[in-house]
């Protein structure tokens, strides 16, 4: 089945094939991301209106939508052309008015003749103490009362698309809905009490009450599961495809790792040992490793990464560690250099800055195998970068790379093992969505001896106290970071810029004491400022978020974050992680400008109350949603129409197990259920994943 199955053809026709949709309306529908009938099927009502009939509007709480039988009374046209046209009406217990604007008297008398029994449905409001219904949604003779739905679905709208249009188009599309073969595991379907697909679609578009619009409604949860299932099948097929491609069997004898472990001043945590075992087990298999190493700030990812690279070197191969920025790449080089010399292996760095003879020399050492470990930025992707025997590629801070770049790096060697590291703890829902094709190792312990960072929330009105606190800390030989949100002063925003804060701190604390680092500086300037701070020659480093990841100065024990309320939670957590790396007690001061918004206060409170990155990332997810959290444009996150990543994690986890189990039992999707799963993939437009199936 390498082309779309015929049973789905009607759902992929032109929108204009539907009743009530001409070319103009079809153009407007694009605003709702509706381009084919299939898109309309998955655009469900977002609320509903109760139109069950009441005997009278007397004592009704206004404003409220009501449906009531009336007797039409006197018409009162306006003397002004654009004024309101009023009609007095009487129900079983009281009288009220119907009001119309730009109305023609002849037309009004025709549709609402005086003395006639009618049914009206619309929003009842009060104007000058008189109950009135302006432009009722429905006006019908009383013998047609049954044609008004007791509960009317309300669809999302966009410019040029009305409720009437949506209702008409949806009725038309529902007539095209085919009976599709079942792709859900029969036991799971029975356990969850889910209806068949075509029944679920019909029910979801015909809610009988507000309960039927809730996410836990059986028809809706089944359709959400289908979206998750298609996505997880795609990831599982990518995973299966990767595992089909032969990997290199990489088994080290342990002699280099033993050297490192014997010289460590502490014992690795249980989580680090577990991660290393998982990675070495993957590397020893003849299928490619595709693993995510997730660790909170300070959980010891660097050691795990280095030990993983040593497995490659022990087996006669090379390893590459790739970072998203030059600052981070150089930090990695510094932290690994000492370990490399202790293990007796050669390490080198390659960035966009390397030019001419120096670059040629580095590339030659890499191609000959003289360089065992390469640290680099995206410069590693360039064609002339050739390894002698690359066995392991490690990508740090994956959220800053596209998935395509991750795959390109994996292609640098012959079936290279890939390990992705992130210091941003990922909530389970996002891990399932974005990294569902990967196996996951989690570092959830901190190395012994690390003291918690004391975090305080301080108003900018107390700035002079903060500076005095710094003056004392400097006199005791300590160092501090001071992070600002902007580089230069902005006329629009009143945030203190890094440049201005740098000048004001130098004026108060002394010129030799304060240094500045930001992304717009020349690389040489930036490097020398960092080097002075790392060597302890300068005591305060004023910076932008350029220092968010990778900077490691154990003597820096104070982190001041100015206008902390405008930073994201994950970013604040990363910045705080720059301190607390030495033996002395560290402090993080979150400076805010009053008054705080409710969400600003919540972010700062969460950060003050916990250092657990997983708790922080889950709160961030709840506050911002997954799209904002990792930036949907670069994340490759799917856009689900019905399913909600943030609130349906359990459903997604269930879909992942089901998808992986199905492919284990039926890798080519040729069984009855496997063929049904192919139909699902076509329905959800996952054609790329269908190409990954070896048969068909």
Give keywords:
696 residues, alpha/beta, seven-stranded parallel β-sheet, six-stranded parallel β-sheet, 25 helices, 22 strands, globular
Brief summary of the model shown:
The chain has 696 residues and is an alpha/beta fold.
Q: How would you portray this structure in words?
A:
There is one protein chain. The chain is built from 25 helices and 22 strands. 38% of the residues lie in helices and 18% in strands. The chain has a seven-stranded parallel β-sheet with strand order 12-13-11-14-15-10-16, with helices on both faces. Residues 627-636 have low confidence and may be disordered. By secondary structure, the chain is α/β, with parallel strands linked by helices.
Strand order of the largest sheet: 12-13-11-14-15-10-16
What is the number of strand segments?
22
Main beta sheet: strand number and arrangement? 7 strands, parallel
How large, in whole angstroms, is the Cα Rg? 32 Å
